[in-house]
Structures are given as structure tokens and as C-alpha cells.
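[[Per-residue structure]]
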Amino acid sequence: IAGGYLHAREVMKIEPAGAALASLGWAASGFFAWHCGTGHAGFLAFFLTPWLLWAWQRALSDLRFVAGVALVMLLALLAGGAYVFPYFILIIAFEGGVHAIRARSITAVAVAGLASALVSLLLGAFRLLPILEGLRVFRRSPLDDDSITLAELGRMLTRFDVRESLEASVPGHPFGWAEYGS
């Protein structure tokens, strides 16, 4: 909530009441309710997203905030952020691209990006290197080619049957409905 409020006030320039509402909306969203409520602890680090955005925006004009970006990246790694860490890289790349287009210059983005990457790698090496080694040794199987029909998609998004969603799988699909539609 604090990170969302700070980002809304300082970066987005939102008035206090709106910033409070935005930060509460973020922290109390269905995404977090679903993932926290079902034990997906690896998604908890997504709560750090406003802090990442705040630090990144500040790092574009003041390189001291690269430490903040690196700290958030480290916290994502320490929280088991198998999804969060690469997603944060995508967020930084997207936000950097938007900044470069608006400023009509890539210099600030390149400098802040390289500095953030270097500091993040140095701080997180003790966690990143074992992860990379584990991925090298224990390769994941290729992605499944599962797909759904438009009728199945409509059913997933409009019907909720607890018994059906808790089944281990749905005939013809490797995952339960909850993994697809909830």
C-alpha cells in the first residue's frame, strides 16, 4: 500500500485521496486475493511492483535510485519470484521504452538500465546463480500444446462450479478449470 501510494503521488502526480484509493485497489485486488488465498506464495513479490516502478522512474534522472531497483529485484528473487523476477525485467523494459519515446532519447534509459542490471546481478548473484544452475541441470519439459475452444473459454469465464474447479483435470486438458478460468 505504501509503495502504491508513493508511486501514485510522486510519479503519477495523483492527489492524496486518489493515490490512497489506487494503492488500496492495487493491494486488495482479486489477483492478490486469489494467489495469496490459494497458497501461491511465489506471487507475493508482485506486491513490490509499485516500489519497482517508483525506483525505476527515479533512477532515470538520479542514478542513486538504481540501488532501489536492485533491492526490489533482490527481494523478488528472495521471495521465490520465479515469475516475478522476469516479469519485473519486462516492466522495466516497457517503462524504459515509453520513457525513451517520450523523451526522444535512449541515453537515460540505457544508463539506468545497465546500471540497474549490473547492481541487480551483483546483489542477486548468490540467488541467481543457483537458479540458473538448477535450470541447466533439471531442464523443464517442452510446453504442452493444450488449447481450448471458444465455447470452453466462454464456459470458463461465465460459470463457476466449485466441484468442477477443484477436479484434478478436465477431460482433454491437463489442468483443472481453476487454472484456466479463475
About this structure: The longest helix spans residues 107-137.
